[in-house]
Amino acid sequence: MLDSSLMQLMWLASPALPIGGFSYSECLEAAVDTARAATESEASAWLVDQLHLTLARSDLPAVAQGIGAWRADDMQRVTTLNAWVLQTRESAELRAQTEQMGKSLLEWLKNHTTATPAQIAVLAAQSPTYPIAYALAASATLAPVRECLLAYAFGWAENMTQAAIKSVPLGQSAGQRILSALTAEIPAAVDHALAVTDESRQAFSPMLAILSSQHEVQYSRLFRS
For residues 113-124, b (16+ Cβ closer than 10 Å) or e, as one string? Predict the structure, then answer.
């Protein structure tokens, strides 16, 4: 992989990317509030499960397939994948998250040369989702798809680790142990995602949907989801 491709992926995975990922816990805060992930070990196990049961089965395959569609200039495929992501967000706040991050990443792309105005226009005409907007950004890096997915998953892991530190709460050393556990699991999750087809891609996580609905009316919260 070219050095420039690697650095672009590092940029996309950085928590400093101004797309608002730090403001979401993806229901982890609700899991903490209901004593399902109230300790370091519980939070670590929760996030590893989330990686394999949701990210590896839905978002990562959508990103992989989206990269292929963008590189093939298949705008109908892009539209179909974006609609699928929207349709599989099981609560108002989870849908709002993917739309807000998707729109923010699209705005970021407008200030760079990694996407054409025509590509941006295709996604802007819809409600852009984060996985498909990320796929657009990653498609221009010329990096292999597997490396693009590794960067996406690591960026997610960093954000979720920070959410665990703030919501459990935990110290920085505990956060590093959680991130280490997630990093060890990411390659297998990515390999699974690469083998997923349209027929096997799925978004079925009923407990996350329940917790997200509870989080929307939670008495006190730090995160937007």
Answer: ebbeeebbebbb
Q: What is the 3-state secondary structure (H, E, C) of 194-205?
A: HCCCCCCCCCCC
Query: What kind of fold does domain 26-215 have according to CATH?
Result: Urease accessory protein UreF (1.10.4190)
pTM of the predicted model as reported, rounded to 2 decimal places: 0.96
Give the chain's residues under pLDDT 50: none
How far apart CA 166 and CA 198 sit, in angstroms, is: 36
Residue 199 buriedness (CB in 10 A; 0-12 / 13-18 / 19+) = exposed
- The token duo for 61 is 């395959």
Tokens, residue 167:
């919501």
For the chain, helix, strand, coil in percent to 5 are 70, 0, 30
Q: Which residue has tokens 């556990």?
A: 181
Which long-range contacts does 167-170 make (Cβ < 8 Å, 24+ apart)? 167/25, 167/28, 167/29, 167/32, 167/222, 167/223, 168/32, 168/37, 168/38, 168/39, 168/40, 168/43, 170/40, 170/43
For the stretch 91-118, pLDDT in tens is 999 999 999 999 999 999 988 878 889 9
